[in-house]
Request: fold
Amino acid sequence: MKIVVYNSCEPHYNVLTLEQFCSGMLRDTIMAKLLNLQGVKTYATRKNAVKAVEESSWANVNGLEYFIMTGEDGRFFPVFVGERAVQAMVHFRFNVVA
Reply:
């Protein structure tokens, strides 16, 4: 049995055996894994990042939560949180963690 895994951060497919996939899952559940988040679109100031969210179609969606992160280059970007953001399809424009 082969399992195809798509990595959206670095668009490519990995083909794994069931054993490779399961060993990776077990490894990830035992150890903490560092994730580096890069902004889809970045803004020069925090104010501009907040303004981009406020002007988006998601500004009035009830229950959406987000925070502003600073990238390594000092630029700002919004990150939405939770399943509700995924269901609202925020990930087409902004970063989402769920």
The two ends are 29 Å apart (CA to CA).
